[in-house]
Amino acid sequence: MSFWEYLGSRRERLWFETWQHASMVFQTVLAALVIGVLVGLLVYRSERLSALATSTAGVIFTVPSLALLGLLITPLGLGVAPSVVALTLYSLLPIVRNTVVGLSGVDRTLVDAARGIGMTRTAILLRVELPLAWPVILTGVRVSTQLAMGIGAIAAYVSGPGLGEQIFSGLARLGGANAINMTLAGTLGIVLLALIFDGCFVLIGRLTTPRGIRV
């Protein structure tokens, strides 16, 4: 069976697994964005706390994916839960680091000027600091998405959802019928999803970045 024939015969299953993979990555990156930005907001004013938060996220990131997924089996079981938790943890480092860098890099004269016209600390954060730091934060989100997209394939190790099932099944059947087709379908599907997600983030960046910063 050729690759195109394989795609045609497994069309519904491949669409379902593609949707699962995209949904899993979207949810984990969204969770990592909320957690990472909150952590960044709490620590960016302190060099020591910023270093601690970034180092902690970095240590988590260095744990091998198969090992982390295996460790999560005991408390969370198999399936979606360990997959989502692991991907969220792996997605934190770029977002936390870029949030700290973005907020710390805001020109202090602008902050002082906002304070001088009577803006509260919360107003300064929401109307001055976060908008100026947003392009840097969004870059971290894009990196996290690409990481989650690739690592998400390994979630099949714990019966996680997504296109990783195609890759793992194909590798387990190397030499058998459709083994290469399965591996190739899963791999190309993840690559295409990564490109689509990145294109969406480029569009989001253009729509949400203040014009003066974008120029």
Automatic annotation (TrEMBL):
Source organism (scientific name): Actinomadura fibrosa
Localization per Swiss-Prot or TrEMBL: Cell membrane; Membrane
Residues covered by the ABC transmembrane type-1 domain: 18-201
UniProt keyword terms in alphabetical order: Membrane, Transmembrane, Transmembrane helix, Transport
Residues of the signal peptide: none
Topology in the lipid bilayer: Multi-pass membrane protein
Segments crossing the lipid bilayer: 24-44, 51-73, 79-96, 132-159, 179-204
Transmembrane in keyword set: yes
Family per similarity comment: Belongs to the binding-protein-dependent transport system permease family.
The protein, known as: ABC transporter permease
Keyword Calcium: no
PANTHER family reported in the protein's UniProt record: GLYCINE BETAINE/L-PROLINE TRANSPORT SYSTEM PERMEASE PROTEIN PROW, OSMOPROTECTANT IMPORT PERMEASE PROTEIN OSMW
One Pfam family named in its UniProt record: BPD_transp_1
